[in-house]
Amino acid sequence: MRFSFIVTAYNIEEYIGSCLDSLTPCLRPGDQLIVVDDGSGDCSCEEIMARLAPLEGRGIELCPIFLGANTQGGVGIPANVALAEVRGEALFFVDGDDLLEAGGFMAARQVYEAHPSDLLIANFRVYDAALDRYMPPADQPLWARVPGARDPEARRHLALQMIGVPWRKIYRVAFLRAAGLCFPEGDFFYEDNPFHWQACLAAGEIRFLDRSVCAHRVARAGQTMAAQGAELTAFFDHYETILSLLPDAQYRPDALRWLLENMAWHIERLDPGAHWVYAMRAQEVLAAVPEADWQALRRDPVALRSWGVARALAAGDLAAVISGWQGQAVMRRLADLEGRLAHLSGEMDRQQQTLGGVQDWAEGQRALQEFRALKALAGERQVDETG
């Protein structure tokens, strides 16, 4: 069976070479490799061509595409450009800063070739670049439910609860084309979420394989997943898009669960400067959620992570919610400063007699002053909230 691979890249010269090297053992003669660069301003294009050169003459169709200028939004336009070039029977997406795990991918390929389906959803690992550590994804517990999801609808509901990234799935190309599936295009990011819902809702057969097919890199500079500002309101746009795709009301709680799960992630990282913009957009969307959808998730542990905040926003209690967010931001800052102070204290003890020690001492004094100011602010906020 001929596989097509789509790799998307934008300003990732440090990572794209390793990504393509990890993909090489997964290629067979007859496969197609499409690499789309979305107008990088660094040397990503040169890295791409250097890594493709050794693949010449191996019977692999190479299709590098250089868009020349960065397109609007995120991966939507470059992914759709690549989809138009697909010639294989099966399709696999690759994030240009990730690493394929050849053993897991080839196992997934073997399973898929033996039992083709519209979608095969595999597992993956998360690589935290800041901690230099591999971790399971947040949806890891869902794999325990796979054996019990025996009928197509149960498998569809389970698939909709999994993290909706395209680079963990093998797609049947004829299915994608028959359903007319493509990524949404616009001035927003996280386009893979509506695409995931489109694919899962349209698929006739969904299979699962609990093998890691790639290591997904997080916590690198410039990564979309590192967003903390108003761009996170795109999730409310995508929620509305997802609602418009639903064939009937039975999937509405699934859609709300997806939104609440992502909101829990947003709330932990949202920049204070984006609090009001995010809260107002959330209130606009959540106020329209039927009570039946809320009640369907009343005991769902994932939804409950942001349930209280979401209900307060839906009711219009924006000021109270934002006050709570601001207090949490202060406490996170305090925790960060405590860690810095502990580190600097140790350094000052070791280097007190050197110039470096003097610099560390000065930095420690600045951190201490900031810590005291924030602690005082946190105390005032606590008095205001309890008084």
TrEMBL record:
<feature type="domain" description="Glycosyltransferase 2-like">
    <location>
        <begin position="4"/>
        <end position="140"/>
    </location>
</feature>
<protein>
    <submittedName>
        <fullName>Glycosyltransferase</fullName>
    </submittedName>
</protein>
<dbReference type="InterPro" id="IPR029044">
    <property type="entry name" value="Nucleotide-diphossugar_trans"/>
</dbReference>
<dbReference type="InterPro" id="IPR001173">
    <property type="entry name" value="Glyco_trans_2-like"/>
</dbReference>
<dbReference type="GO" id="GO:0016758">
    <property type="term" value="F:hexosyltransferase activity"/>
</dbReference>
<dbReference type="Pfam" id="PF00535">
    <property type="entry name" value="Glycos_transf_2"/>
</dbReference>
